[in-house]
C-alpha cells in the first residue's frame, strides 16, 4: 500500500491506524557539495538566513537572529529574534500542529488519530513538493540510477521520517518525533534538534509559557570562539519543561549537550537528513564555509532515522 493511500485511509478512518513498512534502496557516498546544494535550495524556498546579534535582518527574506553570548544565564534567548515572511510560512505552520501528536514518554504506545493523520499528510505533501526535497530526490536518484516518481519518493520519505518502530522497551518511535518534536528519556531530553521548535518553546509560543532555561554553549575549547560566532549552528545545554499532553503536566528534562542548524525549514532539515541517511560511516561536509560532522543513527532494522544532528567542526 502506498504511504499516501495509507495516510488517507487513516485520515478518514475512526480507528487508530498502524503504518506498514517499506524496504529502502542503498546508495553510494555523496559528492562534496551535495549538502550545500540542498541547503541553498532550502534558503531559496522557505529557509531563512541565520544572522549574528548585531547584523541587520532583511524582513522581506526573513531571518533568525542568534546570540550565543549569554554565559549560563537561564533567561538568555539564544534564538533572539525570528522573522518569517508570509510567503515562507507554510511548513512552519503545518509542523506546529504535529507537536502535540506524540507521547512524550518513549515507553508508551502512540495512537494515530484521524485528525493527526490528516495533519501528517498535509505536512508530508508540502515537504515532498519543496525545493530542498526535490534537490535531495535528484541527488539520491542520480546515485542510485533511479528516477523516483513523486509517489515513490514520498513513500521513501515516510519510511525514513514517519514510520514507527520499537527499540527495546521504547515503542512507536520515529525520526520525526525524535529530531523535530523531541522526546523524554527518563530525566533527559532526547532529540529536539529543530531550531524552530526550540524557539517556540523558549518564547512560550506553544501556549505553555517559557519552557527553556539556557545553560550555556557547549563547544569544545578550541572551537568556542568560532562556534559562538557562527549563527548557522548552535551547540548548547538547556533545561526543557516539556509538555506531557497525556497528563496536562510539564516534565522537567535536561539536555546536557544538544544542537541544531539554525535557519533551515523543516523540509530543509528533513532533506539534509535524507541525503545523510544513504551515507555510511563518518560524514563531514562544508556548508557556507563551515565544516560539520553529521551524525546519524538508524532504527534497529535500518529502515528509518532514529536521530541525526550536525556537529560544528570549525571553519572549512
Key terms:
globular; alpha+beta; three-stranded antiparallel beta sheet; 316 residues; 10 helices; three-stranded mixed beta sheet
The coarse silhouette is: globular
Biggest sheet details: 3 strands, mixed
Residue-averaged pLDDT, rounded? 92
Q: What is the rounded Rg?
A: 19 Å
Beta-strand percentage range: 25-35%
Notes on the structure:
The chain is of the alpha+beta class. It has helices spanning 3-12, 34-43, 90-95, 114-128, 131-144, 150-162, 175-181, 195-202, 224-228, 266-277, and strands at 50-51, 63-66, 79-83, 165-167, 170-173, 183-185, 188-190, 212-217, 233-244, 249-261, 284-287, 290-298, 305-315. It has one domain. It has 10 helices and 13 strands. It has a 3-stranded mixed beta sheet, covered by helices on one side. Strands 8-9-10 form a 3-stranded antiparallel beta sheet. A 3-stranded antiparallel beta sheet has the order 11-12-13.
Amino acid at each position: 500500500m502506498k504511504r499516501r493511500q495509507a495516510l488517507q485511509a487513516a485520515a478518514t478512518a475512526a480507528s487508530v491506524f498502524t503504518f506498514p513498512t517499506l524496504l529502502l534502496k542503498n546508495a553510494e557516498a555523496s559528492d562534496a557539495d551535495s549538502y550545500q546544494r540542498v541547503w541553498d535550495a532550502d534558503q531559496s524556498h522557505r529557509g531563512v538566513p541565520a544572522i549574528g546579534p548585531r547584523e541587520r535582518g532583511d524582513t522581506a527574506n526573513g531571518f533568525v537572529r542568534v546570540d550565543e553570548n549569554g554565559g549560563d544565564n537561564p533567561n538568555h534567548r539564544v534564538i533572539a529574534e525570528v522573522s518569517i515572511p508570509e510567503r515562507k510560512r507554510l511548513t512552519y505552520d503545518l509542523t506546529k500542529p504535529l507537536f502535540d501528536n506524540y507521547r512524550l514518554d518513549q515507553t508508551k504506545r502512540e495512537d494515530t488519530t484521524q485528525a493527526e493523520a490528516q495533519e501528517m499528510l498535509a505536512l508530508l505533501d508540502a515537504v515532498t513538493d519543496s525545493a530542498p526535497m526535490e534537490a535531495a530526490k535528484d541527488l539520491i536518484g542520480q546515485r542510485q540510477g533511479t528516477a523516483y516518481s513523486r509517489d515513490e519518493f514520498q513513500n521513501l520519505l515516510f519510511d525514513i521520517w514517519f514510520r514507527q518502530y520499537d527499540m527495546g522497551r521504547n515503542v512507536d518511535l520515529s525520526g520525526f518525533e525524535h529530531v523535530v518534536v523531541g522526546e523524554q528519556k527518563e530525566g533527559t531530553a532526547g532529540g529536539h534538534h529543530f531550531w524552530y521548535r526550540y524557539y517556540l518553546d523558549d518564547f512560550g509560543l506553544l501556549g505553555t509559557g517559557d519552557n527553556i532555561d539556557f545553560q550555556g554553549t557547549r563547544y569544545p575549547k578550541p572551537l568556542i570562539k568560532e562556534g559562538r560566532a557562527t549563527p548557522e549552528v548552535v551547540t548548547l545545554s538547556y533545561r526543557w519543561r516539556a509538555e506531557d499532553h497525556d497528563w496536562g503536566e510539564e516534565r522537567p528534562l535536561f539536555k546536557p549537550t544538544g544542537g541544531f542548524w539554525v535557519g533551515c525549514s523543516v523540509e530543509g532539515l528533513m532533506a539534509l537528513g535524507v541525503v545523510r541517511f544513504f551515507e555510511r560511516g563518518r560524514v563531514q561536509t562544508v556548508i557556507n564555509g563551515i565544516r560539520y560532522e553529521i551524525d546519524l543513527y538508524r532504527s534497529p532494522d535500518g529502515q528509518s532515522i532514529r536521530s541525526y544532528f550536525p556537529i560544528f567542526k570549525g571553519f572549512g
